[in-house]
Every structure is written in structure tokens, then in C-alpha cells.
Amino acid sequence: MTTFVILEGIISLLLIAGGAFAFIGSLGMAHLRDFYMRLHGPTKATTMGIGCMLVASMLYFGVINHEPVVQEMLITLFLFITAPVSAHLLAKTGLHLKLPHADKTRGRPAELQPEEVGDKPVPHPTPDHAHITHEQRPLRR
Amino acid sequence: MIKPRPWLPIPLLSALLLVVWLLLVRSLAFGHLLLGGFLAIVIPLFTHRFWDVQPRVKRPWLLLRYAGRVLGDIIVANFQVAWLIINPWRRSRPHFVVYPLMLEERFTITLLASTISLTPGTVSANVRLDGKTLLIHSLDTQDEASLIEEIRERYERPLMEIYEADKLPLKEAETC
Question: Hey, are the CB atoms on A32 and B23 less than 8 Å from each other?
């Protein structure tokens, strides 16, 4: 009987820890300085939070209810596959849009530098039929 | 090992899809077998043109060790990041790091980038198209060189031993 009490204690602890980690991840997303730092919250702390909850679920349904625990493993697998990919896509989008980063960020990646373009637009060569005005242009069927 | 056929381009993926489907529905009923088999054939047919060439795993037991190490690092990294977020006197030192890659295959580079995203305070921001460098954003780094060295020793070298062992001695001879 005592083993069940201890087990329930462990499960409760894991659930609380999972909730705390998920909360910290969301908090990080809310109040870190710039986009790139905010990315760290959901990739790390939230993964850990969900991992804790899944372990708790595995323990509960596996030991107390004697059910096989495969679905939790699958959720873990999907989570570990999708979390880095979505984080990478978000980061790439941020770089593409040249989102500003906190001033203290060191390192100057080429992706965030202004592109090398001239001051004036490159003049295009004038085509021969440029003198034809809009009205004189032959109608297209 | 089943050979690839025109209607079964990636047999391993098909088998995996079928197993995952059966585990998800948690039943071995004939209807689920039929539906899972249908999905296992149709999904690879639609997606196999996006697949890269899979390099062969040369030393599977090292892969297990690598997975265990990454799992441990994920737990440590979570505590670090959580502490950085809730510590009110934190002085985080964000840093963009350009990481020079030793790996050459696209698949292994993807694996490394995913590992970096999941582990200590780093997100891989851009896998550059030339396949030579990786842009990493780190939440709290003191100096760039030690971070690069850590990633190189902890993750890239094991991956290299697992997938590209034949290229390793050559590279080491170059750096020495």
C-alpha cells in the first residue's frame, strides 16, 4: 500500500513540475527582450513541461491501471521531432524579416546586415517602342 | 530487408507508419490494419520526392549512447533556461554564433541542428544553403569559441562517428 502512496507522490510532483515548466516557458515568451530570445522559451521549457506530464501519465496508467503505455511515447516522439523544426522555421522567418534584436546581442550575422544595393535604381535600357503611347498600342485579343 | 518498389518507395517508412498507426488506435482489428496499410502505402508515394538520401548508420550502439546523452542534456538545458527566465537579476548575454560545420550530408546536418535547438540555451537559426556554416542564436554565452568547441565535441563528433566515419580521419588530418 505504501508503494502506491509514494508513487502517487511522485506523480503529483511530476505534474506540478510539468505545470511549472510550461508556465515558465510561457512567461519567457511574454517577457524576454527580443524575438530570438523569446524563441528559447517554447523550445526548451515547454518541451520539458510536457515531458514531465507525459512521464506522470505513463506512471499512472502503466502502474496503477496496468495499461500499456505507448501513446505517451508517441506523443514524446512527435514532440521531439516537431519542436526543433518549428523553432527553426520561426527563427528563419525572423531573420528573413530582419526583426530587430536586443542591443546587447553580440555577433553580427550576415543575414541581418542590410543588403548591398546602390543608392539609385539601376537604369533599364530604353526599348525601341517606348515612344508609343498607351492609346496607340495595338489591341491584344 | 524488403527492396524498394515503384509502389513502395521507402519500405522502412511504410513499416514505421503502419506500426505507429496501430499503436495510435491501439487495436489490431482488420479494419485498422487495412486503413493503416493504405496510409502506409499512400503517404510515402506522395512524399518520397521530398526525401533526401539516408546515410547508413555505421555504428548503431553509438547512436543509442548519443540519444541518451542528448536526453540528459535536454533536462539540464531546461533547468538552465528556466532559471534564466525566472531569475529577476539575470544578466543574459545573447549571442549570434556562426558555427562552421564538419558534417557534409544534409541529413546529418539536420540532425545536428535539431539537437542544437533542443539543448543548452541555443536555437539553430539558419542552416545556410552552402552547407558549410550554421547560424546559432544562444541565450547566454560568454565567449563564442568555447560554445563552438562544446558543440563540436559533444554532438558533432559523435554524429560524425555514427554516420560519416569514413570522412573523420581525413578531417582530423586536415586540422592537425
Answer: no
